Amino acid sequence: MQDFLFALSKILWFPARPGHFALIVGFVGLVMVWRGRRLGRWLILASLGFFLMLVATPVHQWMLLPLENRFARPAEAPAHVDGIIVLGGAVDQNITEARRIPSLNGAAERMTEGVILARRYPNARLVFSGGQGSFVHGAMTEADVARELWTAMGIPPDRVVYEDAARNTHENAVLTYRLLNPRPDQTWLLVTSASHMPRSVAVFRAAGWRGIVPWPVNYRTGTTWQSWYDAPFPERLGQFEWAFREWIGLVAYRLMGRTDSVLPAREAPSR
To answer: What transmembrane ranges does the database entry give (predicted)?
Structure first.
C-alpha cells in the first residue's frame, strides 16, 4: 500500500504542479480556439492570468509565510541535545552519481546546519534520513550523498546514523523512530526547511516522537516589500509550487491519518 501511495503521489503531482497545470489549461484553450470554441479564450486567459499573478503580486511569499512562521527556533539553544535529525531533500543523488561529486540543491542549508550543530553538540547523535525520494532514480540514495559530503567535511562516519530507506516525510519519521527508539525524556533537534517544518513536526509527533525541537533552516520569505518582489519569475514560480505542495501535503497527511491535525500546535505535547 505504501508503494502504491508513493507512486500515485508522484504521478498525480506532474499534472497538478501549478506551472504544469496552467500550461495544460492554456494548451487546451488554444486547441479549443483553433476548433472554434469560444470557451478556449477563457482558458487561455486563466493560464496567462496565473503567470501574471506571479509577476504582479508576492503571492508566492503569502503562501510560504504561514508555513515558515509556524515554528521558530528556540530563543536560546538547548543546553543539552541528545540527537540531531537532518531530513533529506537537500541533495541531488542523480547528479552526484553522474559527476562523482556531492551535489546540493536550494535546500543546502539542511546539510550545512547539520555540520554546525554536530560541532556545537559533540556528544549528540547525528542522524540523516533520506532514501530515494524521486520516482526515476539511479543507484545512489540521499544518504549515500550525505555520507560522502559529511565525511569530506570532517564528520566521522561512525558518529552518524544514516537512514537510507525513507522516500517521504512520513517514512522519515516512522523509520527513524524504529531505528533509534528514542526515549520520551530525550531532546532531538529536527532540521529541515522552515516551510517543510509544519508537516515534519506533525508527522514526527504522530509517529511517537516526544522530544522533538524544531530547528528550521532554508527560509525563503522576508518581512519587507523588497524581499517580497526581489525574486525573479522562475524563483517565484518555484516557491509557489513548493508552498502549494506543502499545503496539499498537510491536508493529504491528515486525511490519510498520518497526522493528528492539518497544522500542528506550536507547543509540543507533554512528555
So the answer is: 20-36, 43-64
